[in-house]
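Sequence in, structure out. First:
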Amino acid sequence: MRFEIRALKASEGVIQLAVDAADEATALEQARAQGLAVLSARRRHSLFGGFGDPLRARFPLLLFSQELVALLQAGLSLPETMETMAEKENRPDTRKVLAVVRNRLFEGRSLSQALEELPQVFPPLYIATVRASERTGDLPEALKRYISYQERLDTVRKKAVSASIYPAVLLCVGALVTLFLLGYVVPRFSAIYSETGRSLPFLSRMLLQWGELINKHGVVVVAALAVAIALGITFRTKVRAAASAVAMRVPALGERVLIYHLARFYRTAGMLLRGGTPIVPALTMVSGLLPAEMRERLAGAIQRIRDGVSVSVAMTEAHLTTPVAIRMLRVGENSGEMPEMMERIAVFHDEELARWVDWFTKLFEPLLMTVIGLVIGAIVVLMYLPIFELAGSIQ
């Protein structure tokens, strides 16, 4: 959810910004972590007509950042860079975004202030990265860090997606074949057996009854599946959160889900720290990357850090570390290289997760094929079982 925050900033007076957060309390906490005195907050659904959530998916943020870095390093000023990018752009939606940013820059606003007016396009992490770079004057370097960060995230995401495609196809094909057998083939056998007047085995009778039920109410079954898919797409965020919560409770799978969330969390926090964001605001800003349960534990850890407890101790007490992460956090505290250590934590766990996904995929795919084969085979055997018994009695 997005919230529109009106706040008082010491150097600029009253400002407005948009914050992505799970609820209003989290949005207020993120604003206060940036040193703002919050005046009001309200939920925000859209900025203006054509801009909405789909635009973020369509806007080429990574390409935008790469072109911005190239033009800035070529010696163009920031307003000239945005004007050049807007003039060459052919896609109407993207050109509209670039025109808004360009106009705000010509009005004298900073880049982060211009980006804040387009929360549907630029995520809070991107805006925070730009804002931190404006204090240090190294916008190209900050954007390079964000590009590298996003490319690593995309690599992990692509591995997970590619590993899940084949099992998903197997499940869909298996489900379609099963529905075809139950809804079309089994009722034909049921009609044949009803004419013989012979008593059938219990399991065969159950199978035939299920087939008749699906055959008679096929429209209802298809409609129910369509509604379930539509609800899943509409509430995909809640579905993912629920699936993550269930997975966290599965012994073997829960540990890997935890590692995935922690890797993303530490990578993002490390990037913000490297850009000059203090530790408490950085942890607060990335809290939205964690599930609700872990987010609550992180809030307690942030309070402990405010009280003077070291980061490694606070994160350990909140159960937001692994044995490797604990040691690297301690090394970062002792050496003063906390951003580098957090990024190394993420890299280590990404590699560990990639190995596990590869192993799990190799094991899961044959198991899934075996289960689907057993289900379809059981349906076929139960359909033909009365015929086998009849042939045996004739002999």
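Second:
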Amino acid sequence: MVCSFVCSFQNTGIFTLGEKLGIDATEDIRILVLLWKMGCREKPSQLQKQEWMSGCAQLQVDTWDKVRGLIPSLDTGFLEQSEFKDFYKFCFQFNRQGTHRTLDKELVTALLKLVLKDRIDPDRVNTFCEFLEGAEQHTHITLDQWSSFLDFCYECEDLSTYDESTSAWPVVIDEYVEFMEKKK
């Protein structure tokens, strides 16, 4: 059973995986959660055969019906904060292209809205995305900037308490706060 299950997946992409599972791989966070839980780390934007096989073994699934049965449990709301941080980092790493160490801001804004939905205040996510879309100097985002935004959301819920002179945040966070001050 496992062999035919694995072989039927070998030549399909992430979008086809989503179709087989009945979810939209472009808009449903659960596809990323599944790939993260399967240990998909070898190549960005790809699920390798060995990762699929070991992931299926780890998750104890050997049929498509069993994988589909996992879908309800793949909600990020079930993740503890430390687990979510690991998943959040995975989302950046998985979406890189080849050996690139950054993501285009268009992809970042789409990912932030998908990954942080129901985890972080939507106003914070939306205004940060608005800031990035208008920021000509931030065409690419690094992993440090990506990770820092999540930490910033956890640590600085009230922007009025932000003190740039004592902060150690990346410049993109300082500029975002300035953007918000001007917006008011």
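Remark: The two ends are 60 Å apart (CA to CA).
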